[in-house]
Amino acid sequence: xxxxxxxxxxxxxxxxxxxxxxxxxxxxxxxxxxxxxxxxxxxxxxxxxxxxxxxxxxxxxxxxxxxxxxxxxxxxxxxxxxxxxxxxxxxxxxxxxxxxxxxxxxxxxxxxxxxxxxxxxxxxxxxxxxxxxxxxxxxxxxxxxxxxxxxxxxxxxxxxxxxxxxxxxxxxxxxxxxxxxxxxxxxxxxxxxxxxxxxxxxxxxxxxxxxxxxxxxxxxxxxxxxxxxxxxxxxxxxxxxxxxxxxxxxxxxxxxxxxxxxxxxxxxxxxxxxxxxxxxxxxxxxxxxxxxxxxxxxxxxxxxxxxxxxxxxxxxxxxxxxxxxxxxxxxxxxxxxxxxxxxxxxxxxxxxxxxxxxxxxxxxxxxxxxxxxxxxxxxxxxxxxxxxxxxxxxxxxxxxxxxxxxxxxxxxxxxxxxxxxxxxxxxxxxxxxxxxxxxxxxxxxxxxxxxxxxxxxxxxxxxxxxxxxxxxxxxxxxxxxxxxxxxxxxxxxxxxxxxxxxxxxxxxxxxxxxxxxxxxxxxxxxxxxxxxxxxxxxxxxxx
Length: 543
Description:
Blueprint (H helix, E strand, L loop, with lengths): L1 H8 L8 H4 L2 E4 L11 H7 L13 E4 L14 H6 L15 E7 L13 E7 L37 H7 L5 H15 L5 H18 L3 H16 L21 H16 L10 H16 L5 H11 L25 H11 L1 E4 L5 H13 L5 E3 L4 E5 L7 H13 L1 H4 L3 E9 L17 E7 L10 E5 L4 E5 L5 E5 L3 E5 L14 E7 L34
Antiparallel strand pairs: 1-2, 3-4, 5-12, 6-7, 7-8, 8-14, 9-12, 9-14, 10-11, 10-13
C-alpha cells in the first residue's frame, strides 16, 4: 500500500500514468476458451445453455480485467457443472473507465472478417486519444467476428485426441467426428470454407485410421466421406484430394471415359432410374465437344452443355461391393525372395502373387466404380486414391495381407493406395512417375495384354542398373521409394474401349514424408509435437 501511494505521488521521481498501463480494449468472449462453448457441454446441457457471444455482454474494458476470458475453462467450472448460462459483462462492469467510438477503417490492417468503412474501437472515457502502444495481439478494436457454434477440442490434429479415439472405438459417428474436426479447422486453423476444412479432416482421419489399423472404421469413414463430398446435386464446388477444384475441369478424353463407364453400368443394370438422363447428357456434351473441335459449334454452347451435366459430373453414381472370398494373396508369394532382391537392387518383380478372383475383382472395380475424378495429361491419364473411392474391401485386404505375410511390409503401416488408368488414344509415356510417399511401394499392372509387351510395363532406375519390366497382367514391382519407377506405355498397342485399358494400382507403406510444412513445427501425426500457432496460444505441447 505504501509503495502504491509512493508511485501515485511521484515519490521516486516519476509518476505512473494509469492510461499507459491500463489501455482500453474491446472485451468479448474468446472463442474456444469458454468451457460452456465446448461440444461436450452442449451435448450434456443442450443448445440453449451454450454461451454463444451476446452483444449485451461485450464492450470496452480496461486491459487485464475481463470476465469473459477464463482460459482453459478454469474460471467457468460453475457454469460447466450446473448448466447456468454465463451472463457476466465482459468488462466486469467497469463502464465508467472506457468508452467506445467509431473510426474509419484501415483496410490494409483490417481483419479478414471485417466489413464496412468504419470499425468499433475503445478509448479512455472523456479522451479523444487512442492508446495503441500495447502488446501485439491486444484487441483495441472489435475484430468483427463472432463464433456461433460449439467449440471443438483444440487437440484435434493429435492422434490422442478424442475426435480420433472416440470414432475409432465407435463412440462417435463419422458425421460427429467430421463436424468436430471441421469446427476446429474453421475456428482455429485458418480455413475459410467448410469444404477445405472437411477435406483436411478427411485426409487426417484416413492417415490415422490406416496408421492405427482400424480397418472397419476406415471403411465406414471413407464411405461416408465419398457420399458426402461426391453426392449427386451436392455442393457446386468440390475440392480435389490432389489439389484444386475437382468438378469444373473437363477434357474430351475424360468425358469419353465417363460416358463409356455409364454405358457399361447401364448395360449391367447397375444404374438406378434416377440417373436415366445422365448418359444422354454425356452424349450431348461429347457431340458438342467434337463439333467444337471441328469448328461446328461455339464455346458457349459447349459450356452450357457442361453446365447442364454438372450436377452429375465427377459425382458418385455407382459404388458397388467388390468382395473376394478366401485369401487374396497366394502361396506363390515368396517373402525371402522379395527381401533378397530389395537388399541387392532396391526393387523386386513378383508374379502370380494374387489370386485370379482378386485380379478379376480389381479390374471390375476399376471399370465400374465412380472414382476416376482426377485427370492428368488432358484426360489421357485418370487418377484416384483411397480418399476418392479406391477403398474397396479387396484393395484394403491386399495391403493387409502383404503386411501379415512379409515382415518387409509388416514393419511399415499402410499409408495410401493410388490408382492410374490409361487412355489407349494417348501417345508416348505418360507420367504417374511422381515420387511415392512412405518407404516402400508395390505397383500392380492390370488389363488385357497389349500387342507388344516389352514397350509396356515399367522402367526401373536403381542405383546399380536400369531395367525394363515388361507388362504382364498381375505382375507387380516392389521397390524402395528411393528408386525411380516410371511407366512405359504405348497407347497404340492397346485395344480401344473401357475394358481394354491398362490400370496400375500402387500400395504405399511407411510414414508420410509429404504432408509437413517445412516452415513450421506442425507435424500431422502430432505425437509429442507442438501445435500449429493460432491466435491465442503458441507452442502448446499436447504430450
